[in-house]
Amino acid sequence: MAAALIWLIVGIVLMIAEVISGDFVLIMLGIGALLGAGSEALTGNIYLDVAVFAVSSVGLLALARPALKRRFLAGSGVPTGVDALVGARAVVVSTVDYDAGQVKIGGEVWSARAVHESQPPIAPGTSVTVVEISGATAVVDIVS
Questions:
Q1: What confidence tens digit (pLDDT) does each residue in 76-124 have?
Q2: CA distances to 34, 102, 109, 133 from 116, in Å
Q3: Cα-flanking dihedrals φ and ψ of residue 2, to 5°?
Q4: Which uninterrupted H or E stretch holds 30?
Q5: Pairing of the two strands 137-142 and 108-114
Q6: Helix (H/G/I), strand (E/B), else coil: 121
């Protein structure tokens, strides 16, 4: 029973140490140690405990860790800030040409310019789509 307690303490210490490292290595070893503690409590065979620890730790490091890292490093995939404005609908407030103009995007007035130099001026009240944000200027195109 003393060996199971040691495995349990090692597992908990490794999991706590994971908070500092944050690399998903120590947590996998900690889970392996907890499985070793369970094996010790059930069988009492130290060789089997070490084998359970080794196999489970290597398996978790090889299979679970890469999936967890991908999941946590991927982000939400939801655009934020000015990236969220690309593709948004806007209404022309003052005539928009290639050089200047203003549009209202989601209740806010933005300086704007047309996406193409050869495009005729866009009249106030016209619906446009934001193609990109260049600095503090919305580059827009007429809604098709």
A1: 777 778 888 999 999 999 999 999 999 999 899 999 999 999 999 999 9
A2: 64, 16, 21, 14
A3: -65, -35
A4: helix 26-43
A5: parallel
A6: coil
Range list of β-strands (E), 1-144: 89-94, 102-105, 108-114, 127-134, 137-142
Q: Which residues partner with 97 through β-bridges?
A: none
Size (the chain), residues: 144
Contact 28, 64 (CB under 8 A): yes
- Amino acid at position 94, single letter: S
Report yes or no: 90 and 112 within 8 Å, Cβ to Cβ. Answer: yes
Contacts of residue 132, Cβ cutoff 8 Å, sequence gap at least 6: 86, 138, 139
Closest CA to 18 of 36, 6, 8, 31: 31
Classify the phi-psi angles of 88: left when phi > 0, otherwise alpha if psi is within -120 to 50, otherwise beta: beta
First CA to last CA across the chain, in angstroms? Answer: 75
Q: Which amino acid is at 86?
A: V
- What single-letter amino acid sits at 52? V
Residue at 104: amino acid letter = K
Q: What count of other Cβ atoms lies within 10 Å of the Cβ of residue 74?
A: 8
